[in-house]
Amino acid sequence: MPLTSKGMSVPEITVVVPVYNVQAYLPKCIDSLLAQTFGEIEIILVDDGSTDASGAVCDSYAERDSRIRVVHQRNAGVSGARNAGIRLARGRYLGFVDSDDWVDRDFCRTLYRGATDYGADISICSYYEVGEQGMRCGASGDGGDTVVYDRREALRLLYEDSLIRSYFWDKLFKRELFDGVLFPEDHTVFEDMAIMYKLFYRANRIVQQNVPLYYYLLRTGSILHSGFDPQAEYRFFLVIRERVLFLREKNVFPEDQDRFEAEVLKRGAHVINHISVFGEAFEFDAVCRDIVSKMHDFDRLKFSRIGWGTWFRRRMLYGHYGLYIRAYRVFRKIFKSKSR
């Protein structure tokens, strides 16, 4: 590795690992990073106020391997933990690994070579989904092929959530992409979606290698696998609205802008339908009214662009909000009674 002015080695890659109450999973994660065939890495473990032995596990590993740096902080959530790691990172490239997951020994080497060989600002690999008993549930792609995208092509796939997803842990980024961009610390879910599109917009070239090198653990009780959450549904709507307004501002896909905006309207009505049935168990009214107010961002869309169903729901929500909510609740009760 090259040296800093103080004689410290400068890694090519910094891997940030947010850690919170995962003492049972953490050793496997760290061991997989220490076993990398690419040597020029540093690993930043951010203990985000863990109440179990996770912090001690981090310290124990740091004492044994100089590539590991540990940060202990008050609980700030995964976004706050990642941001702490980003601020301390010294590598030319940034990667992120969740502390209950693990990686193939060639994870860093393959992503790094993809970035350097193709001059890419973002390098992507495939991943396995793994059950808690260790059974692989499938791979996101294993054909072994490599595809290089320009900014526009990659952004389209990201927005369509098809061949490219908004996960951070299957990617390697040039560190300068994060200049002025941090994870939103008021987000407890969908924090990846909240900034990924900004990084892709800054990237000139993105490379994707269909080789599964990341093992994503499908853990019971994790945030993304814990069932319906009205706040999460609301947050998802806010994020996709922000993403689509960004496209409008930058005029990235003028030919498809109407389609993307129509999807936000549909999602808004869908979220209102879902969370309105919570009644007094959830402060739905303020949230629903906020969604309606934000749907006005897309009032320019006519009937022909959004379809009859979305047009009707929008018209009812705008002009007869209370009637719409009451009618939907009655519909849900009737539907449930018939389905028993």
The top level CATH class name of the largest domain:
Alpha Beta
Number of domains: 2
Share of β-strand residues:
15-25%
* Named CATH architecture of the largest domain: Alpha-Beta Complex
Secondary-structure element series: EHEHEHEEHEEEHEHEHHHHH
Helix content, binned percent: 40-55%
Mean of all residue-level pLDDT scores: 91
Number of DSSP helices?
11
Overall strand count: 10
User: Which segments are poorly predicted (pLDDT under 50) over 5 or more consecutive residues?
Assistant: 3-7
Q: In whole angstroms, how far apart are the ends?
A: 66 Å
Description:
Helices cover 45% and strands 18% of the residues. By secondary structure, the protein is of the alpha/beta class. The chain has two domains: 212 residues, Spore Coat Polysaccharide Biosynthesis Protein SpsA, Chain A; 112 residues. Strands 1, 2, 3, 4, 5, 6, 7, 8, 9 and 10 form a ten-stranded mixed β-sheet that branches. Strand 2, helix 2 and strand 3 form a beta-alpha-beta unit. Helix 7 packs antiparallel against helix 8.
